[in-house]
Predict the structure of Pimeloyl-[acyl-carrier protein] methyl ester esterase.
Amino acid sequence: MNSSIWQPVVPALSEHFQLYCIDLPGFGDSVWSSENDVSLESFVEQIMPALPPRFHLMGWSLGGLIATQIALTHSDRVMSLTTVASSPHFVESNDWVGIKPTILEQFQQQLDSNFKKTIERFLAIQAMGSEDAREQVKQVKQLIFTKPMPDQGVLKQSLAILQTADLRQQLPNIEVPFNRFYGRLDSLVPERAIDDISALAPESKAVVFTKSAHAPFISEPERFVSELLKLVEN
């Protein structure tokens, strides 16, 4: 994805904040400019110069992992952290609820064979539960595909981050106000994981969107904005 995915909530949020909508390096209009391999640290290295001296920070899915890394390493600049449909560790294991490793592998294979069709299917799933899901998906598709397709090498290595990254033990070190948004119908960050993440970050606040899957800002944009404004001060 690229930053156009946020357009369903950008107009409303723009009334309250000066927004910086970032294409992750290697996605959309952002090129991968680091000499380092793709990692949470190299994403942060490239993103930070584009941000103002102080800011509220919000990241979705993989972007939530990157946003968490920023909050951990640049707490002097971050005023608050909000992660959306994200997890400190995405992959299921004996002691953790998450994505089955085979699903990530299948997703990578589908992206290789037909990237655009896979993204369209993904968007359709995320808008399920919304009263105007079809129109929302049409709108977001038009926005997403106006920007360049992601760098395939960066995309593959980003999926590898989802398979390997683990920030669970670092969550207690987050020093800024920490909000977590989830979709009840999300299959990538299952609802059963929420309590486990809350136990790792007991000072954080969790909000569950009952009609949403992996993208509550698409399926419930009005409530999404309302909940964010309750938690994040201007």
User: Anything to note?
Assistant: The two ends are 27 Å apart (CA to CA). The beta strands are 55-60, 78-84, 178-183, 205-209.
